[in-house]
Design goal:
Distance between the termini: 43 Å
CATH class of the domain at 71-232: Alpha Beta
CATH superfamily of the domain at 71-232: Vaccinia Virus protein VP39
Structural class: alpha/beta
Order of helices and strands: HHHEHEHEHEHEHHEEH
CATH topology of the domain at 71-232: Rossmann fold
């Protein structure tokens, strides 16, 4: 699939009930060019052919739009080169998105991409367990999204403190997902979440797993712990 005309991509997205405007197409195309160029000199993301860019990255991000109400305040934890946050911002400009990553080179790329694409997106270089201590961050977001950033228990402990009660953690996982190994259930029970909901699906023949967890009660103040303790003793 080396055809990147608007008509072709609109048809691709429509097959999964995802609208794609012409303006969004051109912005995604430009973002893909930036991501591909940057990945030639630094390891921002895997899969940078035209086919992979649209199916593994953009379509993958776009799939979770159905879980994000308009004007939602979203934090993308471990955003890397800006996925899924930047495609989400392009596809639905009403979303209020903060990109968070601990690696400065990745956030510098995100900031440059956001500037060139004129997106209303904030990019922050910080560890999640440290950024949560900043004023106005705890329980400030409607959704936390992340793609393959960490195991379920680790991600949950980092993400839940950012969520308001009623908010959701949305985790994009791959074909090798194991609920038992990821420990979403045990972490959610401690952090104020409902039982996780798991959706298994395919995008262009590639197996995908989406885990959503609703926060139904405030997260205890002692969470998140320091990262070394989170890794050493997962919930």
């Amino acid at each position: 699939m080396e055809n990147n005309t608007y008509q072709h991509m609109e048809k691709l997205f429509a097959a999964y009930q995802i609208p794609l405007t012409e303006d969004a197409f051109f912005q995604l195309e430009r973002y893909g060019d930036l991501l591909r160029q940057a990945s030639e000199v630094q390891n921002l993301t895997s899969g940078t052919t035209l086919h992979e860019m649209w199916t593994r990255h953009f379509l993958d991000a776009a799939y979770i739009l159905r879980y994000l109400p308009d004007s939602s305040k979203i934090i993308d934890i471990g955003t890397g080169g800006g996925i899924p946050g930047i495609p989400l911002a392009i596809l639905n400009p009403s979303l209020q998105i903060t990109l968070l990553d601990s690696e400065m080179r990745k956030i510098e790329f995100c900031k440059d991409a956001v500037r060139q694409l004129s997106l209303n997106v904030q990019a922050v270089c910080a560890r999640a367990e440290e950024f949560i201590c900043k004023a106005g961050q705890r329980e400030a977001y409607d959704c936390a999204v992340s793609r393959a950033m960490a195991s379920g228990s680790v991600l949950s402990e980092l993400a839940f403190p950012f969520l308001r009660t009623g908010g959701r953690l949305i985790a994009l996982k791959g074909r090798s997902f194991s609920m038992e190994a990821e420990r979403f259930d045990s972490a959610s029970a401690v952090l104020g979440g409902d039982p996780p909901e798991v959706t298994v699906y395919e995008l262009e023949g590639e197996p995908k797993t989406l885990v959503t967890v609703r926060k139904s009660a405030p997260t205890p103040e002692q969470y998140p712990r320091r990262y070394a303790k989170i890794k050493r003793n997962p919930l």
